[in-house]
Write a structure and sequence with these properties.
Length: about 230
């Protein structure tokens, strides 16, 4: 991640928020729409630390998780537009979820976009104790055993959930969706065998993969992961 470019963009945007006085004159709160320990939370805290150094004010991270990110994004939208509340926004809360349910914000008008941090890598994972060594084996089991598999992802309407729904529809798998507030929660559920499959980020899963507790079956992105080059893509 190139923090110099990102910080330059953010600081340029901040400088245009307040003209009447020097900015900032007090701490800035950063609302994160997922729980502590998630990829978004970790990246937000790193960005916040760098911004604090550049701006000379504390960046206070506030986690407002739930509803696939809608709770936190709603809090950003309803905040006073004075430059002292910023936050992270995941694309589904702007592009998908407003078409599936009523949300208390206008995705086109409620926000001033300061910068793009970057995409995350996601993949399909199973417990290392499971019998499925490959994605094909999981698909075969799912086809032969309708509703015997449950998958966990972020909340309804997120890219993770829609990806798994598409996999099921395209490959003839009937499985059950279990929503979680963040990838870290779905990882714990998989480790505890509360679900059989998850679609989660590398940041949330790689420590458990390296520890031999989780197995990645396939990348849902367009490329293989550098950390797991032998795992295929969809």
């Amino acid at each position: 991640m190139n923090f110099k470019k990102l910080l330059g963009l953010l600081i340029f945007c901040f400088s245009n928020l307040v003209f009447a006085q020097e900015y900032p004159v007090r701490p800035i709160q950063m609302i994160v729409q997922f729980p502590p320990g998630t990829t978004t939370d970790a990246v937000a805290r790193e960005v916040g630390d760098e911004l604090a150094k550049e701006l000379g004010q504390q960046i206070v991270v506030i986690n407002r998780a739930g509803a696939g990110g809608v709770i936190g994004v709603s809090a950003i939208a309803s905040s006073k537009p004075d430059g002292y509340t910023i936050g992270t926004v995941n694309m589904p809360t702007l592009t998908i979820i407003p078409h599936l349910q009523q949300v208390p914000y206008d995705p086109l008008k409620a926000f001033t976009h300061l910068g793009v941090i970057g995409p995350y890598d996601y993949g399909v994972f199973v417990n290392a104790n499971s019998p499925w060594k490959t994605f094909a084996e999981l698909v075969e089991f799912g086809r032969k055993n309708p509703n015997k598999l449950s998958f966990g992802t972020l909340g309804a309407g997120t890219t993770n959930q829609l990806t798994m729904d598409k996999i099921g529809n395209d490959l003839g798998i009937k499985w059950n969706f279990i929503p979680y507030k963040g990838d870290n929660e779905s990882v714990l559920a998989l480790l505890g065998e509360q679900v059989q499959v998850i679609n989660a980020s590398g940041a949330a899963t790689m420590p458990q993969v390296k520890a031999g507790k989780l197995r990645m079956l396939v990348s849902t992105g367009a490329r293989r992961w550098n950390a797991l080059p032998d795992v295929p893509t969809l």
